[in-house]
Design goal:
heterodimer; A: mainly alpha; Arc Repressor Mutant, subunit A; 2 domains; three-stranded antiparallel beta sheet; two-stranded antiparallel sheet; 7 helices; 8% strand; elongated; B: alpha+beta; two-stranded antiparallel ribbon; 9 helices; 4 strands; 46% helix
């Protein structure tokens, strides 16, 4: 700061006091106020600047200075002032409590400033700790970590196979193939059986039935026709129906064996 | 693959692994190198020897919170820094003060931080610290609202070259420095 330097000369004359009409642009104040990190920071600044004893704060003096700053701040930045206003209220409260006479029967009442002092000292410690952390060397700035290049090749390991495993696998394949074919066979059988019942039920009505009438060409498609045909053959084989044809290429008639 | 036959080979394996690792290696990591055929005490001894081997060379073997790593000797840092001339952006005072509170008073809630600093915590400040992986949430305080409790991470210690929080400058250094003893 200019004021603290021992000698300032203007036109050869020693300057002992700052000129009263020194112009401070209004914007400068804004920048200045924003550099405080909050009401505690501002209070600490005022205490240190005025060389006040933090353990015996003259509340009146500090409160006046503080309010002065906050008033300037309110004119510029209302949002910022909320935290600061709370502190104003606290300072005024402490000041007024100090003015009250202490009742005789209350022995050694706590200093109303105690909580504020505790907070100020804690904040100041954190502030110094933060500066210290900031100055500590950090990775990439202050020290460098060694990292030699190493090509991490993603090695694809083929799983090991022995003869036993192969045999086991083949057995499984065969077993599954068997299961599958049985399953398919079962389904076909059931389907033929189902159609045998259908044909037989149809023929129970009595009389002769034309071979072609037993086939449903509209729905089910070729597989159903084949299954139906197989059903008829099966019924014939089991002697449940009679199939008759008068001459080659003439109409085939079917008849249930048990119905006359 | 045959196992290492002598101390020199074992140290060679450790050295190569430490130099090529992208993260600090823990003792458990390094034991894996020897497929469980090494005692922890032996490993520590080998690391001590390796540290001494590098003493008059260009790198230091350093222990940080998550393990061991090699880093350039401090006197070489200034030269290496010239490779990246653009200065690292600095954190604001708000960020550094919040970090200091979390480091020294953890676990803390946002409310605790606001109480100490006397101003509301800007969400942006917490985000910067969490994104840097220096701070994370370690639980909730069982009070109405269940506020998150913040603490510093091992990564924070790694980045500051520390093994544990106890290596930070003691907090008493700051709380007594400027307070005159009166009365």
């Amino acid at each position: 700061m200019l004021v603290t330097t021992s000698e300032i000369k203007i036109n050869g004359e020693l300057l002992t006091e700052l000129p009263l009409d020194l112009y401070i642009p209004p914007d400068a104040l804004e920048v200045y106020l924003e550099s405080f990190e909050g009401p505690l920071d501002l209070l600490l600044y005022l205490i240190r600047k005025n060389n006040l004893d933090i353990l015996d704060i003259p509340m009146a003096k500090l409160t006046v200075q503080y309010m002065d700053y906050v008033d300037k701040m309110r004119a510029i930045n209302l949002e910022l002032a909320a935290d600061y206003l709370l502190m104003s209220a606290m300072l005024i409260e402490i000041k007024s409590r100090m003015l009250l006479p202490t009742p005789a029967e209350v022995e050694e009442e706590d200093d109303p400033r105690a909580e504020l002092v505790r907070r100020l000292m804690e904040y100041e410690a954190i502030k110094l700790a933060a500066q210290r952390l900031d100055e500590m060397p950090k990775v990439g700035e202050g020290f460098q970590v060694a990292h030699a290049y190493y090509q991490h090749i993603a090695e694809i390991k083929p799983p090991e196979v022995d003869v036993d495993a192969l045999v086991e696998a083949w057995k499984n394949v065969v077993k599954r193939a068997k299961l599958n074919s049985n399953h398919q066979l079962g389904r076909a059988e059931l389907s033929v059986r189902e159609h045998m019942s259908l044909v037989l039920r149809r023929l129970q009505a009595g009389g002769m039935c034309e071979f072609s009438e037993l086939f449903d060409f509209e729905t089910g498609g070729l597989p159903k026709l084949v299954v139906n045909f197989l059903a008829i053959l099966e019924l014939a084989k089991e002697g449940l129906i009679k199939i008759t044809q008068q001459a080659a290429f003439s109409t085939i008639y079917l008849q249930a064996s048990n119905v006359e | 693959m045959r196992g290492p036959e002598n101390v020199a080979e074992m140290k060679g394996i450790l050295e190569a692994a430490l130099l090529t690792a992208s993260q600090p290696l823990s003792l458990d990591d390094m034991l894996k190198l020897f497929a469980g055929r090494m005692e922890r005490a032996t490993l520590r001894m080998l690391l001590d020897e390796l540290k001494q081997d590098w003493e008059d060379r260009t790198l230091d073997l350093i222990q940080v919170a998550t393990g061991y790593r090699f880093q350039a000797k401090p006197e070489l840092s200034a030269f290496i820094a010239r490779l990246n001339p653009e200065r690292q952006p600095r954190y604001s005072r708000a960020v550094m003060e919040t970090l200091a509170i979390i480091a020294y008073r953890q676990p803390v809630t946002r409310g605790d931080i606001e109480q100490i600093r006397g101003v509301a915590v800007n969400p942006n400040v917490m985000r910067q610290l969490v994104e840097r992986d220096w701070v994370d949430v370690v639980g909730q305080r069982e009070v109405p609202g269940r506020p998150s409790l913040y603490a510093t991470t091992k990564h924070f210690l790694d980045d500051l070259n520390l093994c544990s929080l106890s290596e930070l400058p003691p907090f008493e250094d700051f709380s007594q420095s400027e307070v005159p003893l009166s009365s």
